[in-house]
């Protein structure tokens, strides 16, 4: 199998790249190598004849057409995206450009390539568009997101992903391109850029810095171990039904405060400090438009394709903390040169608001 992975140097993308390469596939990764991509995640594949990294922007339509012609992929996994909600609040343009127009460029390149295929090659081709549960908006205290939940995005990030989902589905319905869509819950695990909650808390706690928790910490997320997600993506792309959406979730709902407290307890056990790390927890002003609860119903994926998560939150979080403790060489350069842990997505109060 020849797999083309966009955003393959990112967090989920690198996990998928490692998984597919480990299963014997030839893997070509295209990545713009923005701040959130760390080539160290895939460094040990550099000498593999079954791996190639291409530095390019998916918004470059001509480059995408040429890439498909050269790679001749059987399967396309589209993960390239701007993905941090906080950054989208203060800089939405990059999210619209990459997540919407980049997806358009990729779909058109895929359509041009697929249209020239014939026979078994054409039958085998698949395009998996990888998305998020945030497109569904916020849940109340009960209920789960299903594949039929109406879209109701709240942030510039989730709105841009919702738009790209609709593009992917439209290209399947209008042009017949063999597209599938997946929507996942919050991922965590090794090689996660430290602006997101779990790696940020791990590294701040290691350095005995304040652990910021938005609002009162009651916001709930469903957590999915990234390697379980990678297995799901391969299964969906290879065996899922064309035109269908599959939700991927870990069935691990936790409040943000519970997540932070559990990380503190694990670090106190694995890397003891002078005082309990729960004392570092600091409640800060909530994020604008902060969805209260996400929870995925993965029944369709489980029953139809036979996927099951291998990790629960306790086992997955322990593996994650242990990985960061054992891989300082991966994250220390990021903390020193790329992102030092400062809060993102804070809106400045206007002069008029200050006067009121």
Kindly describe this structure:
It contains 13 helices and twelve strands. It is of the alpha/beta class and 356 residues long. The chain has a domain at 2-188 and 222-248: 3-Layer(aba) Sandwich (Rossmann fold), CATH 3.40.50.720. The chain starts with a strand and ends with a helix. Mean pLDDT is 95; it is low at 350-356.
Fold topology:
Elements: E1 2-6, H1 11-22, E2 26-31, E3 51-55, H2 61-71, E4 75-78, H3 85-90, H4 92-115, H5 119-124, E5 126-132, H6 156-175, E6 179-184, E7 186-188, H7 197-206, E8 211-214, E9 220-225, H8 226-239, E10 245-248, E11 253-255, H9 256-270, E12 281-284, H10 299-305, H11 313-326, H12 328-337, H13 351-355
Parallel strand pairs: 1-2, 1-4, 2-3, 4-5, 5-6, 6-10, 7-9, 8-12
Antiparallel strand pairs: 9-11
Q: Brief overview, please?
A:
This protein has 356 residues and is of the alpha/beta class.
């Amino acid at each position: 199998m020849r797999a083309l992975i966009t955003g393959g140097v990112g967090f989920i993308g690198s996990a998928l790249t490692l998984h597919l390469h480990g299963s014997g596939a030839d893997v070509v990764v295209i990545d713009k190598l923005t701040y959130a991509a760390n080539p160290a995640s895939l460094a040990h594949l550099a000498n593999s004849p079954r791996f190639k990294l291409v530095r390019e922007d998916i918004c470059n339509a001509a480059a995408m057409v040429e890439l498909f012609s050269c790679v001749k992929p059987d399967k396309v996994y589209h993960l390239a995206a701007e993905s941090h909600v906080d950054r989208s609040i203060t800089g939405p343009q990059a999210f619209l450009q990459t997540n919407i127009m980049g997806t358009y460029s990729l779909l058109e390149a895929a359509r041009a390539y697929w249209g020239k295929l014939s026979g078994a090659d054409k039958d085998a081709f698949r395009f998996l568009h990888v998305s998020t549960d945030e497109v569904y908006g916020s849940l109340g205290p009960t209920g789960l997101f299903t594949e039929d939940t109406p879209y109701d995005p709240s942030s510039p990030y989730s709105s841009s992903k919702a738009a790209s989902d609709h593009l992917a589905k439209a290209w399947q319905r209008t042009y017949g391109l063999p597209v599938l869509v997946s929507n996942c819950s919050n991922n965590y695990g090794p090689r996660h850029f430290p602006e997101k909650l779990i790696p940020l808390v791990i590294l701040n706690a290691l350095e005995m810095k304040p652990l910021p928790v938005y609002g009162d910490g009651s916001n709930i997320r469903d957590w999915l171990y990234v390697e379980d997600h990678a297995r799901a993506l391969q299964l969906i792309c290879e065996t899922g039904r064309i035109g269908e959406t599959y939700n991927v979730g870990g069935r691990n709902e936790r409040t943000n405060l519970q997540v932070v407290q559990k990380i503190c307890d694990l670090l106190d056990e694995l890397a003891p400090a002078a005082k309990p790390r729960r004392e570092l927890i600091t409640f800060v002003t909530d994020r604008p438009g902060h969805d209260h609860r996400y929870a995925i119903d993965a029944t369709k994926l489980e029953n139809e394709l036979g996927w099951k998560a291998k990790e629960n939150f306790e086992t997955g979080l322990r593996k994650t903390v242990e990985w960061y403790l054992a891989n300082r060489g991966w994250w220390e350069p990021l903390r020193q040169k790329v992102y030092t842990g400062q809060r993102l997505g804070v809106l400045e109060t206007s002069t008029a608001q200050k006067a009121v």
